[in-house]
Amino acid sequence: MLLSAGPALAEDDASELRALKARLKQLEQKMETQARKEEALAARQNAIQNAQMTAKAPVPFDPCASGKLCYKGVTFTFGGWVDLTGIYRSRNLASDSGSVYNFIPFPQSKNYNTGESRFTARQTRFSVLAEANATENIHVAGYGELDFEGAAQTANSVATNSFNPRLRQASIEIDRSDLGLHVLAGQSWSLNTPSKAGIDPRGADTPGVIDFELVPGFLGARQPGVRVWQDIGPEFRLAVSAENPQTSFFGGNNPLVGTPAVGPQGVLNPNLLFNLTGPGGSFFNSLNNVSLNHVPDFTVKGAWDPRLGPYKLHVEAWALYRDFYDRFNFANHDVNTVSFGGHLSAEIVPKLLEVQASASYGALGRFTATPFPDATVRQDGSIQPLPITAFLVGSVWHTTPSLDLYAYAGLEKTKATFSNVGTVPFGYGNPLYNNLGCNIENSPAATCNGNTSEVRQYTAGFYDTIFKGSYGTIKAGAQYSYTQRFAFQGVGGAPKTDDHIVMTQIRYYPF
């Protein structure tokens, strides 16, 4: 019995050992599976963290990328284009590539019934961006840009068309990547000019039209100043600037700086001073006036670029402080104003449909496309700012990789701001101003004051890429715009006028 029991016990032990080994192998397989799951989860978490870090981190500066020129540690990027623009206007403005909407003539003017046609190459533009890393965390950039829209007294369209170059931008920018801090000094787009992303001093979200005056409702200027902005997280930026001030006063019937008369026949002359003509050697053109200003323009702006998957969205809001200044009858007068506005730029359909919209309100005449005056003067020499309301909406449809269609609508309007001394009218939009001759050709100029109350415009066009390669890009486009100018009610009614404008353009982008 003992002998027969021995092999049985040995066989049971072997079976139990095999069972234990099988269970151990199952446990090992489960542990390996769990380890693989944990590794995959960790890898996925690391990938998400790396993607987030990459999204938050700025794009590294390539010191010598393809297509750029490098010299002594500085990288140069060239830009610009060669341009030819064709222009037709149904009302003759005697203007080049920019339409001065506030001077569309009423029927009183002989040029109301004469068309205007010309070619111009003056929108040709050149730019250069110089960049370098001063330290690991300090990036320095210098930018310069010019075109040929300047017109000295020797410039003409008769024989040589010798129009002089004009400074558009010249600035230096210093960026601290470790602090998210940026400083700019020089001439650039004003801070209240809309950007397409973040705080961009060198670019602007301008309507993509051919007319150099863009579209009513778009506010912008280029002027010297200092700007500081801070990155607050990956999506929000806050900026403040101090910029060169100028004031466009309404003088008589002339809304541009340059006519010292206020009210009919210049009632306040010669005791009123609100601008000066530069003397010889002042480095200002002797035919241009400089307004009296003693406080810079101050602007604060916030920009938000939220992350919405494949969709791009940019929202910004700003406030502008200005001070207007004059002297009358041995006393100085000044007034402070605050204006505000906002802008939105978005991709409705990624890489296919873009929209933009802007709205603003305040004493913003010098920034408008019309242009409107900033202020007028009361009979005692005190200053009355002119409030401007401006709206713009537009869209660009990228129908194919080479063809873009665009459409914009905008308006700029102001309120009547006036006062009287007895029967003598002062101010802007005064109902006592004489408009009797505005609709009668060649009537005396004094019978058509016609202070502009509102300008509206509707614009549509296309831009097509004809050739594109290592040699650069050639594009061509055409647009049509319909502009209406309305005047305030005066003696004889409220005159209005309009202009049909057709423009064509061909550009070569060599860079």
TrEMBL record:
Residues 10-50 form a coiled coil. Keywords: Coiled coil. This is Porin. It comes from Bradyrhizobium pachyrhizi.
